[in-house]
Amino acid sequence: MPVVTSGISKGQSGKGVGLGLALVSALAFGGSGVAAKPLIEAGLDPLHVVWLRVTGAALVMLPLAVRHRALLRRRPALLAGFGLLAVAGVQACYFAALSRIPVGVALLIEYLAPALVLGWVRFVQRRPVTRAAAFGVVLAAGGLACVVEVWSGLSFDALGLLLALGAACCQVGYFVLADHGGGDGEGDGAAPDPLGVIAYGLLVGAAVLTAVARPWSMDWTVLAHTARMNGTPVPAAALLVWIVLVATVLAYITGVLSVRRLSPQVAGVVACLEAVIATVLAWVLLGEHLSAPQVVGGAVVLLGAFIAQSSTPAKEPAEPTESARPVAAGEAERELSARGTAA
């Protein structure tokens, strides 16, 4: 049985790596707001900050786009979908929702995505979902409601709620499409390299956001000065570099790779930690104090994520073929004897 045992060991190791990547992605994404808020307070429009974020990341990933240019011919629909949904759609819908409903409500609705992912897996892909995984999603959503203190700003605007739900649906697209972005081959039958998918997704997102944000009207002089983070002056350019390299490039790369090693539903629940991380970083770096319900809610989100990831199996390693299994000595002798008799 050494071959089978090795396969299980590799599967467990892959899941551990996937969880680590998902946590890094949540940490990177969660740090975006802490760096973006001082820039917005310094005079930049929120949509312009989003444009700088995506366009800067697209320029960083441009060499990878050139290297994987065959993807334009092989998977144009995947690249367009990732750019429109996972990059531009999430950002545009979320920031548009913020203009009509409170931040906490918008964030809570956006992070209904893990529940929607479970629905996609169960009813569209017709794959089984464990009850414990569903319970973990519900638990994480309840804890998230406490983290964002949704009760402190209940303002129901139909269009705002619809836009926030649009952000959640686009985030579902991110997890589902990321699940198709693995592999490193370049042949027509090979799965597309995830780095190439991310690179072209950012390029598509940057093009769409350029039309929406109209960056030619931006006050570029803000980037030449300092912004204040909890009273401490910080170079605005340094904050932008953090947003581009860490909160976007690193966040997307580790996020997509984690989906490939786990599954869309597990990675989606772990992504709920982004809101908890963002709240804690805002407490530490921006002086935004946490209330008791937020602390309890953060613990509940962690518990829900743990239940979901531990109860939903990662991608199973392929079963070894009959030829790959070790043949016992007696079986080998009988096979040789049979061949001799036949001859």
Q: Quick check: average pLDDT? A: 77
Q: What's the total count of β strands?
A: 2
* Estimated radius of gyration: 23 Å
What is the general shape?
globular
Q: Enumerate the spans where pLDDT stays under 50 for 5 or more consecutive residues.
A: 1-10, 181-188, 312-343
Share of residues in helices: over 70%
The fraction of residues in strands falls at under 5%
Question: Taking strands numbered 1, 2, ... along the chain, how are they ordered across the largest sheet?
Answer: 1-2
Please describe the biggest sheet, giving its number of strands, its sense, and whether it closes into a barrel: 2 strands, antiparallel
Number of domains: 1
- Helices, by number, come to 16
Instruction: List SSEs in N-to-C order.
Output: HHHHHHHHHHHEEHHHHH
Distance from first to last alpha carbon: 32 Å
Q: State the secondary-structure class.
A: mainly alpha
